[in-house]
Amino acid sequence: MTEPSQLPADGAPPETRLVSAVALSDDELEQLGAELGAKPFQVRQIRHWIFERGAKSWDECHNLPKVLREQLKARLPVRQSTIETIDDSDDGTRKLLLRLGDDESVETVIIPEGDRLTLCVSSQVGCPVACIFCASGLDGVRRNLRRGEILEQFLHARDLLAEADLGQTKARFSNVVVMGLGEPMLNLRELNPALSRLTDPDGIGLGARRVTVSTSGHPVRMREFAGTDRHYGLAVSLHAADDGLRKKLVPTAKASVQEIVDAAQSYGAKHNREVTFEVVLLDGINDDSRAADALIERLRDLRCTVNLIPWNPVDRIEDLARPRDDRVDAFAERLRHGRVNVTVRRQRGADRSAACGQLRLRSL
Ligand code: SAH
Ligand code: SF4
């Protein structure tokens, strides 16, 4: 298995450093335009085509001169990933498996819920953190996703919304959560530019407050992430407030629970946002009254909400079980009684490849 430190500094081996037009910053687009002799308004048209109109190929950009389109084609593709499979669940969840330029794959998931339409995106191919209950980390991490590959998950999913009727008219994503494959804090270099593009008011225009990044807790990186000027939401996968128990669930974790909670609170204070602590509940492991009381002790009086997630079974993990609903309810009730805000996330996409990372696992 590859540890985070073994990944090349920029996260991707040279052969995977493929660039698509969606990966380019405004400056890089301008530079490309200048090299090809395009006028500034044509550069603006290119930008509009790839981010707002969602063009997949240069041929679609019909108001660009043919010569320019041919030059662009010779230089780089618009996107570097394609949708390989779409997996629909009965509850409306749609999982897309994307094939990347170097033949790796990642998942992105469309989750309709009431009047919200959320997209869950991946940040790495696999995950180095290896939480004992998670499909994404079972085979370690292959590489970091490039910024374009993170953005393309959104663009592909948005294309589908335009095509499919998801029970909404003029469906748009109300939220984006970085909760797919991978540990986002270990790929901030690529994640940050991708999120800036997503929330660019002159482009895709998603509100930063509608973007939530979930981390298994890397305090130094969390503090670095707090330095961005946009007010993204932060969710922290705590799972247990006791260091010994947490270490069983997240064996590679180096930071203590207190360090993680402190970094989370400092993020919340800086961005004036309530932080969410996620707790994946595993039967007989972290779902008893002692575990609940430890969370109360640590989180009471903090500005936060605990999101309880009863574990979704994973194909290759046989020694864990999802707690019964009444145990989950009792756990939630105990936290509430201890003056901790609680929500419970029931299963989504439950009928097929429910847990994050499973669709990719099955395709391997
Ligand atoms: N690596 C980040 C983000 C991706 S995981 C993190 O761990 O926060 C997103 C969330 O899904 C995390 O809270 C994680 O604990 C949870 N999760 C992973 N596998 C799960 C499973 N099989 N059932 C329920 N939740 C799971
Ligand atoms: Fe990685 Fe998050 Fe899965 Fe843990 S839960 S293995 S950090 S993706």
Question: Could you walk me through the main structural features you see in this protein, from its secondary elements to its overall organization?
Answer:
By secondary structure, this protein is α/β, with parallel strands linked by helices. Helices cover 34% and strands 18% of the residues. It has 11 helices and 12 strands. The protein has helices spanning 26-35, 40-53, 66-75, 147-163, 188-198, 219-226, 243-249, 257-271, 289-299, 325-337, 358-363; strands spanning 82-88, 94-99, 105-113, 116-120, 124-126, 141-144, 175-178, 211-215, 233-237, 275-281, 304-310, 341-344. Strands 1-2-3-4-7-8-9-10-11-12 form a 10-stranded mixed sheet, with helices on one face. A two-stranded antiparallel sheet has the order 5-6. Helix 6 links the parallel strand 8 and strand 9. It is elongated and about 70 Å long. Mean pLDDT is 90; it is low at 1-17 and 349-354. The chain binds S-adenosyl-L-homocysteine (SAH) and iron/sulfur cluster (SF4). S-adenosyl-L-homocysteine (SAH) is lined by residues 127, 133-134, 179, 183, 214-216, 237, 278, 280, 309, 311-312, 314, 355-356.
List the helices and strands and how they pair.
Blueprint: H1 26-35, H2 40-53, H3 66-75, E1 82-88, E2 94-99, E3 105-113, E4 116-120, E5 124-126, E6 141-144, H4 147-163, E7 175-178, H5 188-198, E8 211-215, H6 219-226, E9 233-237, H7 243-249, H8 257-271, E10 275-281, H9 289-299, E11 304-310, H10 325-337, E12 341-344, H11 358-363
Parallel strand pairs: 4-7, 7-8, 8-9, 9-10, 10-11, 11-12
Antiparallel strand pairs: 1-2, 2-3, 3-4, 5-6
Helix pairs in contact: 1-2, 4-5, 6-8, 9-10
Bound molecules: S-adenosyl-L-homocysteine (SAH) and iron/sulfur cluster.
